[in-house]
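Hey,
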Amino acid sequence: MIPKIVNIRVPIEAPPTHQAALRVLKNKSGKMFIGKMANSNAVKWKQSFLLMLLKWTPKEPLSGPLRVSVNFGYPLLKKHHEQIKKRKGNGVMVVEAKVTRPDCDNLVKSVLDALTEAKYIVDDSNVVSLSVSKWFHWKAPFIDVIITEEKSDPWKELDNPSAPSVEPK
């Protein structure tokens, strides 16, 4: 069986990593509840990201064990533009690892929550393999997401007696 794959590129800045603090709020009827302020940067980003995701929502959310790869593209810095200028733009496409904040683990939480809410995946607890990277990129800003359903059991090959094995000496 061929696994289902979803591959999308969303032209949006990476999410703010500081989640809005939970607060005690009141609804219109005066009833108290715990929630996040609607005007927080995290809430605004999530609303924008969800709107973009909804354009490509699959007919059915992916379920079962999932492999997810998320790549964050950040706009080039001034130093990158200076490098391009020095080389006179001769086909230079700058891609450099972003080794500064925000941390990958904090970035990906917002993306997985949005993928669940937009019904791309049933639940983010189904993610069994996760790859996250962040780069300064000449086509930025963007977020690339690849979701693959893992239908096969990777350990099955290890149980196969006819499979070649390598043992330590």
